[in-house]
Amino acid sequence: MPGLNASLFLGLSGLQAQQSALNVVGHNIANVNTPGYSRQRADLTANQALIQGQVYFGTGVTLNAVQGLRDRFLDLQIYRETSRQEGASERYTGIEAVSTSLGDTTSSGIAAQIQAFFQGFQELSARPEDSALRTNLIGKANTMISGMQARYRMLNDQRDNANQAVTSLVTEVNTLTKQIADLNREITGELVPGSNNDARDQRKSLTDKLSTLVGISVFEGSHGEYQITLDSGLAVLVSGQTSFDLKATPDATLDNNYYRVDSLMGTTTVNVTADIRDGQLGGKLDLRDRILVDFQQQLDTLAAGLASQVNLQHRAGFDLNGVAGQDFFLSGVANGANGIPALMTAANAYKGMVNALTVNAAVAGNPKLIAAGGIAAAGDNANAKRLANLQLDGGVNAAGVVLGASYSSVVGTLINDVGTTAQTWEAQTTAQENLVSALQAQRDRLSGVDLDEEAANMMILQRGYQASARFLSVINQLTDQLVNEFGK
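^ that's the sequence the OP posted. Answer follows.
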């Protein structure tokens, strides 16, 4: 059977194991408020038994490993859903910033200004030779144009803001991917697989941050290394110990030389702008290139439809000089007579129409040229009435088709689209926030530090340490007695 010396080592192993386990508990307690920290657990294992004859004698305990309590698949799910949440939130925030102005139903709103413009023709039809009413009509036309242009500029400002954010977000992505690759190097170089828990926690925290910026897919290799790609799979961001940068590059094919996003994978450069769908970057790009553009397009189509129908009818009338009417509106957009088509064909043909639209300088400078008459006779008001009636039956839809509906209804469609889009992304943001919160709560239950639990573990380990010390004290007494009794 083992001697007293062996018993001393048995007791010593107990002391060392309990002390090491207490250090793990202390590490957990110290990191109770550390973001991304996963609590650790000491894995104690009995030492290999000593065999004498047919009897197996225990030889103590060893701290086999310190395990981080985490669920890899839960982490991967959180990365994915966090990206979707941030993307939805960015879209909702961007739309909400413009919805109030586009949805303005007061006298300063687009619908009211268009109504006031056509009301000017109605008032003129009562006194077609009144110069004050003619001047007032020009003023209402300019107010209407200014109102649409102000909304258009607001949308452009929001697009510019989103574009400027692209460069800073790309820089943040590159910084995080480099740090994750460095941690991959530490993890793959660990002496005991799975032992570098703090490096894994740091990597998890960095990947959490990365998922807020861009949609990602994360895969863990056999050596614990992360491989991270865009959620579309088109570009690799991190592969083991190597990170691949994104680059924001001005693109002449985009409005205002807006930035496109390229992936630089060695000698290969891939334009991934359209493939970044989630995260803050995905939300910004979608706002800039699709959502806000659609609202601008509806404004352009509205302006082109209104101007073309007014011009068509205005040319059919006669001014106070008995001369056939000319175009009431002009535009620099090269499409149709005087830059404004008589009939609508395709919405995309009228890009920039709002900003280019003006009242014909000749008409604005000489209101007598307003063609209120249906015939070349002073005092006739037939054409002014027809122009006023365009408000009720001259509207156009987003494809440029004359609807036979009021322009107020067309504006209402735009307002409804803005509101519906905002509600859609608000609902998705809320749903994603709830999902991410539930997943994070689940992760906290598994990986979070519970001080009550740690206090209980500390008491257990303390008792174990005291018991091992008492055992050593007994063995010491026996050894002392043996020496004193038989060593004489």
